């Protein structure tokens, strides 16, 4: 069955960086456009960015464009979210999903941006 596992979150100071990882299994990873979404406490789920088959294009929510990038390694069935210049507003639980099935995600990984 489809399985997604996110990792790499943690506590980071404002202005810092983190790299999140997403491991996919149970499907042909290279055939899928993938997305990152996040959910902050008391808020709804927010799309962060997408990466399409072959790695291009990538698209981002306005709030993270220019600070976040997404990459993928299809040979390893992995996707990454590179987060730079982190802000307290980026604090959330981050999830990866297939673009065609947002509702099927892993357990997520917590990112907390605080001094």
The averaged pLDDT comes out at: 96
What is the H/E order? EEEEEEEEEEE
User: Biggest β-sheet, characterized?
Assistant: 7 strands, mixed
Helix content bin = under 10%
Number of strands: 11
Structural class: mainly beta
List the uncertain runs.
none
What is the radius of gyration computed over CA atoms, rounded to a whole number of angstroms? 13 Å
Distance between the termini: 40 Å
Q: Overall 3D geometry? A: globular
Beta-strand residue fraction: over 45%
In DSSP terms (H or I, runs of 4 or more residues), the helix count works out at 0
Describe this entry's structure for a reader.
The chain has 115 residues and is mainly β. It is built from no helices and 11 strands. It has strands spanning 3-7, 10-12, 18-25, 34-39, 45-51, 58-60, 68-73, 78-83, 92-98, 101-105, 109-113. The strands form 2 sheets. Strands 2, 4, 5, 6, 9, 10 and 11 form a 7-stranded mixed sheet that branches. Strands 1-3-8-7 form a 4-stranded antiparallel sheet, with no helix packed on it. The model has no long low-confidence stretch (mean pLDDT 96).
Features:
mainly beta, 7-stranded mixed beta sheet, 4-stranded antiparallel beta sheet
Give the SSE map.
Blueprint: E1 3-7, E2 10-12, E3 18-25, E4 34-39, E5 45-51, E6 58-60, E7 68-73, E8 78-83, E9 92-98, E10 101-105, E11 109-113
Parallel strand pairs: 2-11
Antiparallel strand pairs: 1-3, 3-8, 4-5, 4-9, 5-6, 7-8, 9-10, 9-11
